[in-house]
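Two records follow; treat each independently.
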Amino acid sequence: MDVGLFLMPCNPPERPLADANRWNVDVLERADALGYAEAWIGEHFTVPWEPIPAPDLLLAQALRSTERIRLGPGAHIVPFHHPGVLAMRLAYLDHASGGRLNVAFTQGTSITDWRSFRPGAEEGEDRARLAEGIEIILKYWTEPGPWRYEGRFWTCEHVGPHPPENGVLAHHLDPLQRPHPPIAMAGITPDSGSLRRCGERGWWPLSLNLNPRVIGAHWATVEAGAAAGGRTADRRDWRVVKEVFVAETDEQARRYALDGNMGRYFREFNLPLFSDWGFLHLHKDSLDEPDSAVDVGYLCDRWLVGSPETVTRKLTELQEQLGGFGTLLVLGMDYADDPEPWYESMRLLAEEVVPQVPGLAAAPAAGAAP
């Protein structure tokens, strides 16, 4: 099993943005030094707890100071971008990364983001924009020009040389990785359309940090999509995000988690937001439990929090409960005010926990679609 990071990035709202940026880059550098396989950076515009509106800018900084870790936006909100511009920016970043770029796409989840940029959008329109936008991006990446695309939302061209006699102007921004960087999509609801699309297209499914009951249903959705697309889903492609804090003892780890930024993030942001959205059931073991049962202590009991021995046991149980997944993505937290326990947790996870967790047996590769 590989280990990586998923940075929403959960910086506290009072943290100056420059300081938050420095912390996030520092964490990526530390992950690279510890051998973490990958990291993903969120994109949000009106979420003070998740304050990065341009993950590619953070990634560009981290690429200069890391050597091996694969990095990617997690995820670009396609309806807010012109897909042709996004395709070319990502192609350039792929070259700058030396081929270490992963990419993820989403329609977005924040109501205030939608109201800021797409007020009055029709129901379901952003899902349609996401689908059309991805197809345009892939068309730029995989189909030689010239061509013209006329869709419901965008019209664009892959231009030929101009002027024809010398072609000093021309399309030239294609990805370094061919046919394109690996593509992922994240899912929340059990029947997530994004995860179904991953199965259909052979992309990487990414399950967000929810109750294992919900995460387990995600894989059934991926498999249904794979069957519809004539593919075999590969569990090694599955990324699962979890809250993790490893310390010398269970008591220390729980204190760092609950009394630190992790506990605060859920008390002040995640739980109030999920309550507003009617999503608290996604954190529950059983739908019969009342919403009032879901507090930070309830969540912490289900996080990967504890000593190396405890977290090894919990992670092994999670693998068995879900049927196996390829990469554990640690939900990134901002412990800049007291960083050493967080850095030690990252080290213990990589060096003492993950090597003890049984990996997946070889399985048929799904193969990525163009």
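The next record belongs to a different protein.
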Amino acid sequence: MALLFRLRPQTKQLLEYKSIIDANEEKTPEQIIQEKQIEAKVEDLQNKIEEVKIALEIKSLALSKIQLSAELKNDLEKINTGNSVLMDTMKEVLMLNKSVMKLQQECRNLEIRRKPT
């Protein structure tokens, strides 16, 4: 029983220390706001990185398509089959590819103008 009486004040003191430590570990409203702002900025940057990756992939695919069309056109000219319908079709495909790229660029420019900064 005497042991319990000695341990009681020590336990009470330890609980007081624990509550002081817990109070010091709590974050202030300013720290919470700052952390939320940082998290929002990180998320915004991750979204921008993803947009850039997608734009790069689209441009790479468009470039590959144009290169492939140009190579095919060159090969057809080398073969010189005399089939003007096929050549006209290939020229039209190249013209359409260029038009698509031009329209995609205009679309990106319009999206950039619409985005709030």
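Discussion point: Residues 29-79 form the longest helix (51 residues). How would you locate this feature using only the token line?
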